[in-house]
Amino acid sequence: MLTVFVVVVALVSQTAAHYTPDWTSLDARPLPSWYDEAKLGIFIHWGVFSVPGFGSEWFWWHWQGQQPPDQKYVNYMSQNYPPGFTYPEFARQFHAQFFNPDEWADIFKASGAKYVVLTAKHHEGFTNWESPNSWNWNSVDTGPHRDLVGDLAEAVRNRSLHYGLYNSLYEWFHPLYLIDKKNGFKTQEFVLQKLLPELYNMVVRYRPEVIWSDGDWEAPDTYWNSTEFLAWLYNDSPVKDTVVTNDRWGAGCACKHGGYYNCEDKYTPGQLPTHKWEKCTSVDTLSWGYRRNMKMNELLPLAAIIEDLVRTVAFGGNYLLNVGPTPDGMIPPLFEERLRGLGDWLEVNGQAIYSSKPWRVQSENTTVPVWYTSKGLTVYAILTAKPPMSTVKLLAPKASAITQVFLVGNPTPLSWAPVNPGGGLVVLLPELPYTPAQAWTLELDLVQ
Ligand SMILES: *[C@@H]1O[C@H](CO)[C@@H](O)[C@H](O)[C@H]1NC(C)=O
Ligand SMILES: *[C@@H]1O[C@H](CO)[C@@H](O)[C@H](O)[C@H]1NC(C)=O
Ligand SMILES: *[C@@H]1O[C@H](CO)[C@@H](O)[C@H](O)[C@H]1NC(C)=O
Questions:
Q1: Where does 356-443 sit in CATH, by number?
Q2: 158 C-beta closer than 6 A to ligand 1
Q3: Sign of the alpha-carbon dihedral angle for 414, 415, 421, 425
Q4: Measured from the CB, is residue 196 less than 6 Å from ligand 2?
Q5: Percentage of residues in the chain with pLDDT exceeding 90?
Q6: Which of 3.20.20.80, 3.50.50.60, 3.40.50.720, 1.10.287.470 would CATH assign to domain 21-350?
Q7: CB hemisphere CA count around 210 (13 angstroms)
Q8: Are 179 and 130 a contacting pair, CB within 8 Å?
């Protein structure tokens, strides 16, 4: 029995794909299926930048990195902090004293999301875990004195959500990075001494199923050793079979190489892309990180979030919706309200979203805007506005005598009539239940 087992294992491992460190090989890796099925993730930007909570998570760069500095940040600091106050001093006020990972994970679960992506390290270089390569600039040595990445991992996984980590390749002010930059990226001091050891360690320690790479654009992928890292990730890492990555692995990689494509922040294609993609966007339209002076009219309304999710899924994308927690570890209640509202809508309409595929037609706007998704012979028509009358006209579907139409959440089949012999149908709607989401789903059981 044992010898049979050994032989079988040997055969299996021989047939498993082996990737070489070049884009032709790496780009050919099939994306693990859980990712496309998941459709919705929650993005979390949390770090020392949450402490000033002013402008955005790019605070440090705007204040002291870019030339000339942004006067808005310079003035804010000179008016509110003593002369000589440095950015690293903010870390002491990153207390996370109210951080309850179970409460966060409950909110994420209630949103209907299937994965969560936390900033393990943003461009400021501060790690939300005890990185041995980030001495005194991590959440265990300073600030919260806590393994934020690990504590959230446990709570998220306990609710059967996939856990991913955002990692910035570059660090604005890391001395080794600045040396390499000065050398036109002909040297790799930062990559070999800091970035790679830290990244390998992070993967082995936390087994993230998404690596959301960022901060790649100043240097080519050869500087970052991206293909070598990805070959290891896909061949030998503890997450080789389930991990997905994005496309930010060096200047020119976006929308071209890697796993799924982010292309650019808040990317919104106008037609169906040919490669799996993800739209990342933020409830606070002006920032990814927490802003203390955020105003309600700067937030995405729930109906806009749902419309955006539906459009993204109709175009074959995943939707990664960001919230920025406070330095105390609270998810602002207005963000929580949006997430729970999204989950309430998905509770009823999720069958049109999760595991769906783009349909032959992505949208039409005959009576009201309609977005299509599909599952086998079932087509979902999601209305993102309330029709002015009690009927809705759909021109794209080709119905037959035995086609059945339902309002999702309502078991009674709806009456409908053909528009013309070539296709299209007019559906008689029941009273549409009120929903702050302003979106209703028709299920069309077509036989074609
Ligand atoms: C989550 O934690 C509870 C309580 O400790 C445990 O009973 C349950 O099995 C865990 N579920 C998962 C999916 O890890
Ligand atoms: C980085 O890439 C070079 C080749 O480009 C390779 O020789 C080296 O071993 C790589 N180092 C790591 C740590 O991946
Ligand atoms: C649908 O059509 C209406 C009326 O022409 C227009 O105002 C609206 O912007 C359109 N919506 C979409 C999503 O194309």
A1: 2.60.40.1180
A2: yes
A3: negative
A4: yes
A5: 93
A6: 3.20.20.80
A7: 34
A8: no
Ligand 1 centroid vs 107 CA: distance in angstroms? 17
Q: Please state the rounded mean pLDDT for residues 116-120.
A: 98
Q: Please, which pLDDT band fits residue 17 given cuts at 50, 70 and 90? A: confident
Give the distance (Å) from ligand 3 centre to CA of residue 399.
25
Residue 358 burial (C-beta neighbours within 10 Å; 0-12, 13-18, 19+): middle
The pTM of the full predicted model, rounded to 2 decimals, is 0.95
**Whole-angstrom distance between the N-terminal and C-terminal Cα of the chain?**
50
Report the atom number in ligand 2 closest to the C-alpha of 228.
Answer: 14
In this model, does residue 381 exceed pLDDT 70? yes
For the Cβ of 369 lying below 6 angstroms from any atom of ligand 3, the answer is yes
Mean pLDDT of 324-351: 98
- Cα 155-158-161 angle, rounded to 5 deg: 90
- Which ligand is nearest to the Cα of residue 228, counting in written order? 2
> What residue owns the CA closest to ligand 1's atom 7?
158
Burial 205-214 (b: 16+ CB within 10 A, else e): bbbbbbbbbb
Cα 205 to ligand 1 centre (Å): 20
How do beta strands 244-245 and 210-214 pair?
A: parallel
List the beta bridge partners of residue 375: 378
Query: From the CB of 66, is ligand 1 less than 6 Å away?
Result: no
- Beta bridge partner(s), residue 371: 363, 382
The response to whether residue 228 sits with its C-beta less than 6 Å from ligand 2 reads: yes
Ligand 2 centroid to Cα of residue 222, in Å, is: 9
Classify 26 as helix, strand or coil.
helix
387 Cβ inside 6 Å of ligand 3: no
Count of C-beta atoms within a 10 Å radius of residue 163: 21
| Cα of 302 from ligand 3 centre, angstroms | 19
pLDDT value of residue 1 = 44
Q: Where in the chain is the domain with CATH 3.20.20.80?
A: 21-350
Kindly state the helix (H) or strand (E) to which residue 337 belongs, with its residue range: helix 333-349
Give the model's pLDDT for residue 7. Answer: 47
Determine if ligand 2 sits within 6 Å of the CB of residue 231: no
For residue 403, pLDDT beyond 50: yes
Q: Is 365 in the pocket of ligand 3 (CB under 6 A)?
A: yes
